[in-house]
């Protein structure tokens, strides 16, 4: 706890309802004492989370910038490589993630109405869908590994230069060797972007486990919803990143340019 | 102590440092390492950045020694390259970026706005640990054999052509970057949400404004550096070609991403320093800062424009002529707010009642050196002149005038100014004035010749150079020696003053900020009761009234 | 500049002798120096002004003389003054600088072209006549010289302080800069972009010769083959002529006279054929397919060194007729066994 310097004149009374001005100077267990009121604490927390998400946007922004540049330079390679991603799997994952986001939103609602059981249920549901997303991602990555589409020494452009020799790509037009090489740039960005997204998911799932444990204890059923709310913001941010990644990476060639 | 001084120290026979304060509230090393008190964390930062400053300074000394002679005879070229890389990484990422915000800002911002602490004390402590991990990794890169990319990590050199500990150093910067992000985030939230009743935005000290602007840059700029570093890491480990032209990558992409952070980074470094200067000049002129709103908004303007000038680092790199034109124009615009600040400070002196304590001497030094540093920045921002001057010692001199002449002067000014508040003790006045003068002279002697060297065409990062440049280099090295003495002195007498310095009392400078109305050193919770701000910032009439009435304000 | 040329000469000579200025050895130098003096004047005026204000006020309003401060809020008029005047001065500097920038980076059309390749840690200059130099560059006075610069590994930067010009050598991309030398002599050539261990060893000498001496030098250092001739050999040995033969049935577009023209590509875009275009078309052919042709050209990435590419560029630049191309094709068809001599460039290891 960071309130080692808690001033002695604050009496720890029973948990009280927040937002009641007359009771502001009383304290609930979660009230950090450097905040004047719990309202202030809650606002600060959520403002901090929004700022953090802004930071995250800039972080992903760097990769989106690189994507934009190379997609313009090497459109044919990007289109061909994008066709190797499974749109059904991507679409399923999108649905899974949106459902998980919905479960999270429910969780925030249940925390607000102080329903401990339903809150735990919603959080578990969020976790399950999050795990399902990563599971699907695992199979997608595994397929890329088998096809030698992981950038690096073992990367192979054979499927793009000579598509007719492969079952998967027999209907695709071949790419010139110099362009086919550029598919590696696509796959690098694919793995960097989805990998970074997955990393955010994994961190989120870790936090979820912790939140579930605390929710079971009843920490968030007393009107103290800030952690749930802030985690919700984070989780929705991760969803939204995917909403951008899915069309940018999977659907490049659905509307061919000219 | 001259008669001109306004220092109102308490009667030394009876004076004592308050028994109960943030330093004495808890004991033992762990109470420091696990503290969540912003003042203690500021002190942790103070110790660690001083340590890294002297590491970086040692490398600067080695660089200057090597450049005493034209041949690379002290060390071989590869060692020299490691020296300047380590000097750059340590000074930029481990000293300049955290210097004022993480020490003075951490200590003062909550107090200045009447809060008990920053919004997220634990995250504040986390920042320090991240900083220390970054610092330790940097040192381990050094111990393992060094790194020679230069602090700019230019690709494809850093990704494909060097065998040194690039990854360790990159990881260090990545982690230290998060320390900076969290500090900035903490400041922004604190300034938005934690101000005491009556503390409106325009009643805040200008130090808060400039730290706010710097925090915006930290929060928005640093993640872009982080991702650039991640991409360098991936490219180095997996050999993919995102920056490698041989594999279809764009070698300039890295520089765009890098400078998108690293140009705003120089404003992260200088803005908090400017905040210090506003406080110091006002206090020792005993006069409200001239054009408060103009100074406040110029900080924000610098932060905003600062994001849109990064390409001026790449004017000679084959960028399109039109974009060069736009970025050069924006660079001219970002120069204006700095000019506004300088003139406002100068006019703060007008009709003041000025005394010349050590912080004020450093502030005067700042004004002179920053004016030169800023205006030589215009040389580099205008397109044609940039062609001749970029990548030469002119850039080295310009950067050091702003960062060392400006930022470090401001930092020392601030440390001297708030030292009595932070420790409750005064430092020896005449010795500290001597140090300020020595620093100034040493600085001029070190870096002035480098402007001339730059126009003569001496490239930067050269271990060996044509013999005709030797005379100026000897001057520079001689100056660096004096500068080194100038920096050693404060460390010695400040350490001495911790035990033997005169007791400072609550408000030795008769300053108006909230931090001066509480005891020195402050209580752990800063204020006994939440203060209520009922006057403007820098209201010396209010202060006078308080004192004539003998009224205790708070604390 | 509004300053008499005699006075200017005197001033600059003095500054040079005092080792404050490099010598003025190109037509750009006086422009750069005049601009530099303007910027210095700006700095000095600014510094003197700030210094006068600070010291003036500090003396006039020191506590002994002025025990009580008068509180002043600020002044919109003054704020406007020190916003607008510095801005005006900076904008003036901006316009001046922009003009100078365009001057330095826009070579005159009649300039003589020399290729420069940077690598860790040397500069290689290639004259069109086939003269090769390492860490040296010979140029004549009185002729505009354009440098087409490229790096074969990391970033370098080609800097001649006495000419006041500098240009980054970028891996995989041509950049250009030009100058017209005025004073015969030898001048420093520096790499100014940090490029690894021997960065400070990547230096050389630019030798400026009078036009007659330059002609003499060209003859002495003649390697017997011009760049274009090297390129022609390479063109044949890589089998380029098999498709780019210029005949009606050829699978590749006719290259004679293509340099400087506007091409329409398969995606409908129009491009100007310059050095960079030709180089890119050899390395990344599928992005440069001329309209009406199939994308069948293989990439030559990794097979031709930067010098070899320069030879090819120079060859195609000077190719006016396909007569010799077709002749070579016929002989090579009839004499498959004849091995082409590798060019100087080819023997260099090609970095992946």
TrEMBL record, chain A:
<dbReference type="GO" id="GO:0019646">
    <property type="term" value="P:aerobic electron transport chain"/>
</dbReference>
<feature type="transmembrane region" description="Helical">
    <location>
        <begin position="90"/>
        <end position="112"/>
    </location>
</feature>
<dbReference type="InterPro" id="IPR024791">
    <property type="entry name" value="Cyt_c/ubiquinol_Oxase_su3"/>
</dbReference>
<keyword id="KW-1133">Transmembrane helix</keyword>
<dbReference type="InterPro" id="IPR000298">
    <property type="entry name" value="Cyt_c_oxidase-like_su3"/>
</dbReference>
<keyword id="KW-0472">Membrane</keyword>
<protein>
    <submittedName>
        <fullName>Cytochrome c oxidase subunit 3</fullName>
    </submittedName>
</protein>
<dbReference type="GO" id="GO:0005886">
    <property type="term" value="C:plasma membrane"/>
</dbReference>
<feature type="domain" description="Heme-copper oxidase subunit III family profile">
    <location>
        <begin position="47"/>
        <end position="254"/>
    </location>
</feature>
<feature type="transmembrane region" description="Helical">
    <location>
        <begin position="187"/>
        <end position="212"/>
    </location>
</feature>
<dbReference type="GO" id="GO:0004129">
    <property type="term" value="F:cytochrome-c oxidase activity"/>
</dbReference>
<dbReference type="InterPro" id="IPR035973">
    <property type="entry name" value="Cyt_c_oxidase_su3-like_sf"/>
</dbReference>
<feature type="transmembrane region" description="Helical">
    <location>
        <begin position="50"/>
        <end position="70"/>
    </location>
</feature>
<dbReference type="Pfam" id="PF00510">
    <property type="entry name" value="COX3"/>
</dbReference>
<keyword id="KW-0812">Transmembrane</keyword>
UniProtKB/TrEMBL annotation, chain B:
<protein>
    <submittedName>
        <fullName>Cytochrome c oxidase subunit 1</fullName>
    </submittedName>
</protein>
<keyword id="KW-0472">Membrane</keyword>
<dbReference type="GO" id="GO:0015990">
    <property type="term" value="P:electron transport coupled proton transport"/>
</dbReference>
<dbReference type="InterPro" id="IPR000883">
    <property type="entry name" value="Cyt_C_Oxase_1"/>
</dbReference>
<dbReference type="InterPro" id="IPR036927">
    <property type="entry name" value="Cyt_c_oxase-like_su1_sf"/>
</dbReference>
<feature type="domain" description="Cytochrome oxidase subunit I profile">
    <location>
        <begin position="26"/>
        <end position="534"/>
    </location>
</feature>
<dbReference type="GO" id="GO:0020037">
    <property type="term" value="F:heme binding"/>
</dbReference>
<feature type="transmembrane region" description="Helical">
    <location>
        <begin position="128"/>
        <end position="147"/>
    </location>
</feature>
<keyword id="KW-0349">Heme</keyword>
<dbReference type="InterPro" id="IPR023616">
    <property type="entry name" value="Cyt_c_oxase-like_su1_dom"/>
</dbReference>
<keyword id="KW-0679">Respiratory chain</keyword>
<keyword id="KW-0408">Iron</keyword>
<keyword id="KW-0249">Electron transport</keyword>
<comment type="similarity">
    <text>Belongs to the heme-copper respiratory oxidase family.</text>
</comment>
<feature type="transmembrane region" description="Helical">
    <location>
        <begin position="254"/>
        <end position="277"/>
    </location>
</feature>
UniProtKB/TrEMBL annotation, chain C:
<comment type="function">
    <text>Subunits I and II form the functional core of the enzyme complex. Electrons originating in cytochrome c are transferred via heme a and Cu(A) to the binuclear center formed by heme a3 and Cu(B).</text>
</comment>
<keyword id="KW-0679">Respiratory chain</keyword>
<dbReference type="InterPro" id="IPR036909">
    <property type="entry name" value="Cyt_c-like_dom_sf"/>
</dbReference>
<dbReference type="InterPro" id="IPR001505">
    <property type="entry name" value="Copper_CuA"/>
</dbReference>
<feature type="domain" description="Cytochrome c">
    <location>
        <begin position="226"/>
        <end position="320"/>
    </location>
</feature>
<feature type="region of interest" description="Disordered">
    <location>
        <begin position="327"/>
        <end position="352"/>
    </location>
</feature>
<dbReference type="InterPro" id="IPR011759">
    <property type="entry name" value="Cyt_c_oxidase_su2_TM_dom"/>
</dbReference>
<feature type="domain" description="Cytochrome oxidase subunit II copper A binding">
    <location>
        <begin position="109"/>
        <end position="220"/>
    </location>
</feature>
<dbReference type="InterPro" id="IPR036257">
    <property type="entry name" value="Cyt_c_oxidase_su2_TM_sf"/>
</dbReference>
<dbReference type="InterPro" id="IPR008972">
    <property type="entry name" value="Cupredoxin"/>
</dbReference>
<keyword id="KW-0812">Transmembrane</keyword>
<comment type="similarity">
    <text>Belongs to the cytochrome c oxidase subunit 2 family.</text>
</comment>
<dbReference type="GO" id="GO:0005886">
    <property type="term" value="C:plasma membrane"/>
</dbReference>
<dbReference type="InterPro" id="IPR009056">
    <property type="entry name" value="Cyt_c-like_dom"/>
</dbReference>
<dbReference type="GO" id="GO:0005507">
    <property type="term" value="F:copper ion binding"/>
</dbReference>
